[in-house]
UniProtKB/TrEMBL annotation, chain A:
Keyword Oxidoreductase: yes
Pfam families named in the record: adh_short (PF00106)
Organism: Sphingomonas jinjuensis
Stated name of the protein: Short-subunit dehydrogenase
Protein family membership: Belongs to the short-chain dehydrogenases/reductases (SDR) family.
GO cellular component: membrane
Alphabetical keyword list: Oxidoreductase
Superkingdom field: Bacteria
Recorded GO MF terms: oxidoreductase activity
Keyword Transcription regulation part of the UniProt annotation: no
Automatic annotation (TrEMBL), chain B:
Transmembrane spans: 147-171
Descriptive protein name: FAD/FMN-containing dehydrogenase
Source organism of the structure: Sphingomonas jinjuensis
Highest taxon of source: Bacteria
PROSITE patterns registered for this protein in UniProt: FAD_PCMH
Source lineage: Bacteria, Pseudomonadati, Pseudomonadota, Alphaproteobacteria, Sphingomonadales
Keywords noted in UniProt: FAD, Flavoprotein, Membrane, Transmembrane, Transmembrane helix
Gene Ontology MF terms in the entry: FAD binding; oxidoreductase activity, acting on the CH-OH group of donors, oxygen as acceptor
Length: 242, 433
């Protein structure tokens, strides 16, 4: 069961758009939350679904999460946190403001918004919170450990929130998409067997949501890949170019 | 930099590709607009390309008139999935649904109903075009009509198509009532087409390796959208049987499509085309090859070239005798050969179809076949015909100039709006469009 409304936080991203369409196609009432103008996406969803999707302004780093949920005018049934920022490792390592932005966008902001979501959703039947974390959070690598560490924080947060809310009946799901062909990764050379399309990610999330799974990889191949990466002894790992 | 090719995988270039996420960003885009890369040759290739695939939003739909307004990067497959269950279909569809609406306008695609419905461009009510200098103009038959006529079939060379409005057609089911005829020779095939002009859809699969008395041996498929009352009782009118998608896993070595194997295949295929009527689901009827993902790999790493020409009606019998004889005599096997009756020329300056017959077939890209295609060009030009830019990767400037009498008008529109300086492709450079 999918509890409406479904609030997509970060609805302008490729995954956010695909999720909005996927949920609307399931008949859910969708609320798009994004920075900037998303009227075109809201209208698209309206024409596609025949429903009445809403669009609201949202910035994961603005620091007023309770006010955001109070302003929705309805109690969310499902909240999906898609907002995130890959950033550039070299820039983040040399520029404190950039590092702060990556950390705030991938950990602090999402965690605070989802805490507020859990407060707002207190007692909602069939409620579900979904966080998009990352395989990058499973082990810090030289090439993206600032992003990765923030995602590690988010993964731990989601695990804790799931544990804390289990008795109250609020389901929490962690998603590790692996590589996804999106605007965020445009121009990067991604290995095709491990790279998912946004539509594929959305479908995997919605399927897993209906089955109330706890933690998912979008492509099953990531499970053994990450098991190997986690198993490499630190003494060897630190010398690899990863 | 990203390597990009057309669907024929020949030629290939390194390009700087940007991917706008909004209409506003696309209107500021610099470079050649590119959709799903399904034109076969070099039409979508340029050192700087604007990937339109992120612009796939619907803007409005009027369920009284069928008028739909959408962003140009919307995939036809997406639109069909969305609208067919509500009883709406596109007025014209090409042989694949893995194309964008903008690409359908730019190539002014035709379908099996061209003899009655014309090209896709004929159904476009208006479009918004970014000229690359900050201007965005609404173009239609009444407004900026010169740009409209240049953009329909304009191969992306008149600016970036942002939004398209066109009328969809109502259908009662997701099935086609198909009638199959066999034509033992080319003359029989022409006669069958001429007698079937009142059918909405018609197409022939032609065995290009048959020669002598069998030259032009074809299976002709006619079709009408099935009415609800024609379905078996209790059938779900818009159900589309889900077939597993097959993928060509590797580049095939050249011998797989050798002459002997294709000759045998074509013979069997022809024999299997028993005449008769049947109901066929819409997907295999219109888009049979979409079920085989990456079918272009069947031709191996060297890629392939698709050849499509059209000859005027009065020249078709003589011209195609020569063309088919040339292919049967010396061509490598062609996996696919399709013959189709076309209706009158439309409004697009570089629109391909003209009243007559079109033949489409493909060949592995090698020196021998390329030489054969030059001979086919000569026969086409001699008979007053032309070849299709969306499929071309190798024709000469002279062949194109001879086939497209409105080319100067097209060039003039490009010059007048400064588009020639801002939009070019390997195709336009090669053919001086």
């Amino acid at each position: 069961m999918i509890a409406s409304p479904v609030v997509i936080l970060g609805a302008r991203s490729d995954i956010g758009r695909a999720l909005a369409r996927g949920y609307a196609a399931k008949g859910a009432h969708v609320i798009l939350a994004a920075r900037g103008d998303i009227e075109a996406d809201r209208r698209d969803l309206e024409v596609r679904s025949g429903g009445q999707p809403k669009a609201v302004a949202f910035d994961v780093t603005d620091g007023a999460p309770d006010a955001f949920f109070a302003g929705l005018g309805e109690t969310p049934g499902t909240v999906v946190m898609v907002a995130g920022l890959l950033g550039d490792q070299d820039r983040s390592a040399s520029d404190d403001a950039e590092a702060a932005r990556v950390m705030a966008t991938n950990y602090e902001g999402p965690a605070r918004y989802l805490l507020a979501a859990a407060r707002a959703m207190n007692g909602v039947e069939g409620g579900c919170i979904i966080g998009i974390s990352s395989v990058a959070g499973e082990r810090g690598r030289g090439s993206n450990y600032i992003y990765g560490s923030a995602k590690a924080g988010l993964t731990a947060f989601l695990s804790g929130l799931r544990n804390a809310q289990a008795k109250a009946g609020l389901h929490v799901m962690t998603v590790k998409p692996g590589f996804v062909a999106t605007q965020m990764t445009a121009g990067m050379k991604l290995p095709p067997p491990l790279t998912a399309q946004p539509d594929e990610v959305a479908k995997a999330i919605i399927d897993a949501h209906e089955k109330r799974r706890d933690v998912i990889y979008v492509k099953a191949r990531w499970r053994p890949v990450m098991a190997i990466i986690r198993a490499i002894p630190e003494g060897v790992f630190k010398k690899l170019s990863l | 930099m990203t390597a990009i090719t057309g669907w024929g995988r020949y030629p290939r270039i390194e390009a700087e590709v940007t991917r706008p996420a909004s209409i506003e960003a696309a209107a500021r885009g610099e470079g050649l607009p590119r959709g799903n890369g399904r034109s076969y040759g070099d039409a979508s290739l340029a050192p700087r390309a604007v990937d339109m695939m992120g612009l796939d939003r619907l803007v409005s739909f009027d369920d009284q008139t069928g008028l739909i307004v959408c962003e140009a990067g919307l995939m036809l497959s997406d639109l069909i999935d969305l609208m067919l269950p509500r009883g709406w279909f596109v007025p014209v569809t090409p042989g694949t649904k893995l194309v964008t609406i903008g690409g359908m306008v730019a190539s002014d695609v035709h379908g099996k109903n061209h003899h009655g419905a014309g090209t896709f461009g004929e159904h476009v009510a208006w479009l918004d075009l970014a000229l690359g200098d900050g201007r965005v103009l609404r173009c239609s038959r009444d407004e900026n009509a010169d740009l409209f006529a240049a953009t329909i079939g304009g191969m992306g060379l008149t600016g970036i198509i942002l939004t398209v409005a066109f009328a969809m057609i109502p259908v009662e089911t997701a099935m086609v009532r198909q009638r199959r005829l066999r034509a033992p020779t080319l003359v029989h095939a022409f006669a069958a087409f001429e007698e079937s002009l009142d059918w909405t859809y018609s197409v022939a699969w032609i065995d290009c390796l048959a020669s002598g008395k069998d030259l032009g041996r074809s299976a002709i498929l006619l079709g009408e959208h099935a009415l609800a009352q024609e379905l078996p009782a209790g059938a779900e009118p818009f159900a589309r049987p889900a077939k597993g998608k097959k993928r060509v896993p590797i580049d095939m070595p050249g011998f797989v499509l050798g002459r002997l194997s294709v000759t045998a295949f074509n013979k069997l295929y022809y024999a299997a085309q028993r005449p008769g009527d049947m109901l066929v689901p819409i997907d295999p009827y219109f888009w049979p090859l979409d079920a085989i993902l990456e079918w272009n790999r069947i031709y191996g790493r060297g890629g392939f070239v698709q050849y499509q020409c059209v000859l005027p009606i009065e020249a078709s019998a003589a011209g195609y005798q020569q063309i088919l004889a040339a292919i049967a005599a010396e061509g490598d096997a062609s996996f696919l050969a399709v013959l189709k009756r076309m209706g009158p020329q439309g409004l697009g300056m570089l629109s391909f179809p003209m009243e007559g017959y079109t033949l489409a077939l493909d060949f592995p890209a090698n020196a021998r076949n390329l030489a054969l295609l030059d001979r086919l060009d000569a026969i086409t030009v001699d008979h007053g015909g032309r070849i299709y830019l969306a499929k071309d990767a190798r024709a000469s400037v002279a062949t194109i100039a001879a086939g497209y009498p409105r080319l100067d008008e097209f060039r003039d529109v490009r010059r007048r709006y400064g588009l020639d300086a801002r939009f070019s492709s390997l195709l336009s450079e090669r053919l001086h469009l």
